[in-house]
Every structure is written in C-alpha cells, then in structure tokens.
Amino acid sequence: MNLKPFYAKGWIISKAWVISDPRILYRILRGAFRAVVLRKNTLRTIDILPTFDCQAKCKMCGVTKFKRRKENLLTLADYESIAEQAAKMGAVAATLLGGEPLLAKNIEDVIRIFKSRHFSVALVSNGIALTRDYARRLRSAGLDWIHFSLESLDEKFNDERRGFPGQSQKVMEAIRMSKDEGLPVGLCTLFVPGEMDRCVELIEYCEKNDLRASLPTIVAVGAAEDIVPASEEHYQQVLGLLKRYRHTAIDWAFSYFFRPRCPAGKEKLAITCYGDVLGCSLNHISFGNVKQEPLRKIWERAGRFSQFRKNTDRCIAAFDRYHIENYLSPIAHLDESPVYFKDHPNITVETEPALFSE
Ligand code: SF4
Question: pTM score, two decimals?
Fold first, then answer.
C-alpha cells in the first residue's frame, strides 16, 4: 500500500500546533520513538463523552444505549485528574464527543482543563445549540477545532437522518459563526456502504470551503445495530477517498507506527461522563472506571485484550468481521452500554487469560 498520503495527512493536520508547543513536540517524538524503536504503544488521544443528552435523534447514533443517569458524573476534579494522568502517559489530543457536548454545562471548564495540560482540544457537535457568543467562549476557553455532524447537503435527507428538522441549516450557521470567531472548522459525516456519491459531495464541499472532513464508517452498534457491516470493497472505497482528498481524515489513517492502524485501546481511549473507559466510543466494552483505578492501569488492561493487540490497518469496529461477530454483535442488542469486560459473554478466563491475570 502506498503510505505516503497518510504521512502527509497527519502532518498537514498537526503541523502548526506541533511547532507552536515544545511539550507537544516532545510527547510526539517520544511516542514515535517508543513505537518505531521499542515497538511499544503510547496513549496518543482520548475521547471524552461529557454527556449523553442530545436534541437530535440520529438514525445511526452509536451511543443511543449508553446509560443516562444524573448521579456519579465526573466532576471537574475528575477531569483534572484524567488530563494529568493522560498527559503523563504521553497523550496529545482530546476530542469531546457525546451525546451533544455543547449541552454539557461544564464544557468550557473541561476544555480549559485539557488545554492547560497542552492538549490539542477538538469538539464534535450537531451545531444546534451553538450561538455566536458560545463560539466565542469556546475559542477563549482554548478549543482548537470544532467539527459539525452533517450527513448530506440535501437538507431534507440530512434532517430526516439526524432526526431534527432544521439541523442542516443550524450547521451552516454554526460554520459561519465559528469561522467568524476564529475557530478552525471541520465536518464529520458517516461513510455508509452504497452512499459514495453523498460522501464525495460532502468532501468536495469541504475542500472548496476550507473545512476539514472526517469520515468514520458506520458501525453496527446503538441505533444502527441491525446494519450489515461494511465489506472489503467498502474499505477500498474509503481508502480511495482518503488518498484522493487531502483534508479528509480518519483516526486509523495514521499512528505512531507511521502506518494505518486502528488505535482502539492502544493509542486511543474513550471515557464516558461516568468514568467508564473504553477502547473507543464504538467498542462498547469497558475495561475499568477512572473513579476507581488509575488510567494507566486500565489502559494496560485494555492493551491485553486480544482484539486490541491485533495490528489492524483499518477500523476493527467497522471492517473486522471476526471482531464484529464475536465482540460487538453479542452485546449490541442489550439494553444498556457499555458492558464491563468481565460481563461480556465471549470474554472469559479461558478465552482471554491475559485480561484476568492481575
Ligand atoms: S475501532 Fe474504529 S472508531 Fe474505534 S478506534 Fe478503531 S478505527 Fe477508531
């Protein structure tokens, strides 16, 4: 595989930010050294899910079954601790997902906390709650990037899929307001098998309008639990788009190993607003809780999971049939996510002895 486009992509996205902060440069060089020379993983990025509240009802929402309680939410002190621990482990990026992160009342404080530990902070929003004043406050809190979820330039199609009349218009207004306030903007759209034209149209819109494009593939979890997983042909289509469009990216397209690699549980963790730690927000298996154990201990445990030890060059949740059939499907129809690894029907002392070895 020609890897050159992927190196370029990682560099294009991060160049200015890396150069501007020596501490980030040090963490990145350390991560690359550990990967290339020592063949070891280093935590690179964490996804924070600060709330599961949302105004929309997306037909493909990946977190629709996540527990929603009002108690035991992470406090700002918990976020301070997570940021501190993750920075010491080498992490350089934090992405705020949801739910809708703009509905989290403490979101500006959370941004400030990660920014003060020299993270690049991005946020993925449906755009509905954004106002000019809110965009200004996010920028002054230190937000580096804002991405808006949009599924189509066809308003009717988009709003139906996202389950919110007018969401398309809200995103267009949100793009304008964010740019006016100096926030770099991207669009996030799902790659759905059979919908190449829609993806290409959105990506080309991004190219023409100086927007970054993010293209995760739909996964059979949450509201999309019954979809047929993507095939090898679809994987090749995604690869083609990543190579063809310079500002289109996805998390598995680059790694500290200088090649495409699914980062789940190795270079990436996701942490819910209750403290549950997952390999990523689409792998609904929890490996511990940051309120009870150090982040490093949970990361090391996740790293022993057979599926995360694979060096897969693509999204395992979207394209790895073995992983989907044995680890995602058996829990996809349960009422509540995430499932603690010891409660997963296919994760036992016999099948995963390394996970139970503490
Ligand atoms: S499973 Fe997919 S979404 Fe999750 S980290 Fe890997 S590439 Fe990213």
Answer: 0.94
* pLDDT in single tens digits along all 358 residues of the chain: 444 445 445 544 556 666 678 888 899 999 999 999 999 999 999 999 999 999 999 999 999 999 778 889 999 999 999 999 999 999 999 999 989 999 999 999 999 999 999 999 999 999 999 999 999 999 999 999 999 999 999 999 999 999 999 999 999 999 999 999 999 999 999 999 999 999 999 999 999 999 999 999 999 999 999 999 999 999 999 999 999 998 899 999 989 999 999 999 999 999 999 999 999 999 999 999 999 999 999 999 999 999 999 989 999 999 999 999 999 999 999 999 999 999 999 999 999 999 998 8
Mutate to test the pocket of ligand 1, among 47, 190, 262, 313 (most ligand atoms within 8 A of CB): 262
**Mutation pick for ligand 1 pocket among 44, 188, 315 (CB with most ligand atoms within 8 Å):** 315
* CA nearest neighbour of 158 among 222, 202, 105, 214: 202
Ligand 1 environment, Cβ below 6 A: 251-252, 262-264, 268, 280, 282-283, 315-318
Interval between CA 317 and ligand 1 midpoint (Å)? 6
Residue 236 carries which side chain, given as an amino acid letter? Answer: Q
Show the CA angle centred on residue 269, arms to residues 266 and 273, nearest 5°: 165
96 beta partners = 48, 123
Nearest CA among 305, 282, 158, 278 for reference residue 225: 282
